[in-house]
Amino acid sequence: MMKNSNWRKILLGSAALLTLSGCSSSGGDDSMDSGTAGGGSSDSTGAGEQVTLKIPVYDRGVEGVPNVTDNYWTDYVQENFGNPNNITVEYVAINRSDVMTDYALLASSQDLPTILMEYDYPKLSQWANEGYLATFDMEEFKEAAPKYFEQMDAEGQMAFTEMNGETHFVLGNRPNWSNGFNFQQFYRKDWLEEVGYDEYPKTYSEWVDAMTKIQDAGLADHPAGGTMIPSQGADLPWIFMDFPINEEEWASYISAVIPALGFDANKALLERENNHYNLGFTDPEYYLTDTASAQAKFANGESFVFGSYISNTMDWLISFYENNPEAELGIVPAAEVDEEAGTSAVYMADNPFGMIVGFSSLATDDEIQAAWKYLDWIADEDNLKIMQWGVEGENYTINEETALPESVVDYEGDKKQGYNNNIDYWCIVTASRVVGDLEDQISAVSPKGLPQEFNEEILAITNRKSELYKEAYAVNFPSFSVPIEAEVEYSGSLTETYKELRDKLVMADPSEFESLYEEYAQQFHDAGFREIVEERLQAYKDGNSTRLLEVE
Fold it and tell me: Which residues, 6 or more positions from 334, have their beta carbon under 8 angstroms from its beta carbon?
């Protein structure tokens, strides 16, 4: 059934990166299993030996949520799925802010979970290239997990399941992927009104004027706030790209993993960040400020804007209103064309799939079968509903007018759900809860129990994105059906290099920005980025990548 990719001995470098070299598969503690897994696997449902299924779950470091690997809902899965199928379910905590390092450490100790999953295709591509993932026959998966397969097939996702001509992945779905509303930026509407703006600034020059007036009024020393950049996925230059988008440039430079130092759009983005820093809009200690600290500063009334994924219960928003009882927030609208600033209305659309799921090349056939049974179990409508919504009368109630479920935002009983309504358990099937029409879906995930409701603003932004999508302004990440070898080799070191060079550029004297950017771009390209760009472009030209979204 399963074909295990060749494993190579793993050495961890100073940056927790994997350096791979050839290694024998003849056995022993220092080698990974390779070759072809034996056929004729035993049926693990109710008979035969007990099978252990290890499932990753994000540990986000969020206070007030249950232990991610041991709570009512992990017990529920064991009792209702594991026990009837003679499967022991173990959840493996994965640090959400450092996913790749956690998986690398698990791989080096030969203790990968049975299931490996992430939202970003380049990460799964890297795992496949490094031998973490087994290949498999999609027809066998279809037989073992018909509900999950049917969903995947209906969403047209089969093109994303293969790499190098072999099947490596299955995929969850992503409702509303072209106009997603799960992430929103909250801003101080009351501050804008105080300095003479009755709506969010429409142009960049107006925004600069508003931030200056907020400073002059003593409302905030550094209204734009700021945080250190994440380990991956930073500085996506969507609005700075020429429109219409050049598809070769998009395929060559746009990545959820490595920022494109040396790409004209990246230069424009960092020049703007440099301007914000030198005007004092940005917190001068942004490079030491993590997301939680920036969130706390916004909640304490120290900054103008903060972005976050939304959910029914958002503790930091509750804290914001407690600390600022007279305040009023708004939601930052979708970007529009700004000819004076030279930016467009391009926005980041999601990929037309949610979680990308692979299976460990260390796993036995029985363990893989257990994983497939689990996917089909949680894809079942009734099982998915209870994992998403919980127990009626405790975690949610039914609205008498709409007949739709509504979460109880202040529930603190023994059935308390994990982060964002248990999303890290059911995201393997779908990226968001879906109920009713678009307005109902927004209401189902928007914050509740606050002095303000944001449903109408979020709906307006979502509808505007739908219009922009029809005008070809929606852009997502390119995906490659072949491994980008240079990306695997250099991504870790380049990420760290980018952090260092980026901070120097942001904090540079504006008169020195141009020359420093050219110098650092050359350094970045020489450190491996040039090879990555060349490989991506070649893969694109060879027809081994996706294309820009086509307007229907």
Answer: 345, 347, 461, 464, 465, 468
Where are any strands of DSSP class E within 297-375? 305-309, 329-331, 347-348, 356-359
**How many whole angstroms separate alpha carbon 25 and alpha carbon 67?**
37
Q: C-alpha distances in angstroms, 43 versus 87, 183, 365?
A: 11, 42, 10
Return the amino acid letter for 369: Q
The one-character DSSP state at 70 is S
Are the C-beta atoms of 524 and 498 separated by less than 8 Å? yes
Query: Average pLDDT for residues 61-89, to the nearest whole number?
Result: 96
Q: Which helix (H) or strand (E) holds 456?
A: helix 455-470
Distance CA 440, CA 442 (A): 5
On whether the CB atoms of residues 87 and 326 are closer than 8 A, the answer is no
Closest CA to 254 of 270, 235, 267, 272: 235
- pLDDT at position 552 is 66
Give CA–CA dist 492/477, Å, rounded.
19
Phi, psi (degrees; rounded to nearest 5) at 48: 80, -170
Residue 21 pLDDT level (bands cut at 50, 70, 90): very low
Using the structure block, give the residue that is written with the tokens 């399941």.
Answer: 161
Cα distance between residue 288 and residue 281, in whole Å: 16
pLDDT at 225: 97
| CB distance 212 to 218 below 8 Å | no
Question: pTM for the complete prediction?
Answer: 0.76
Alpha carbons within 13 angstroms on the beta-carbon side of residue 456 total 3
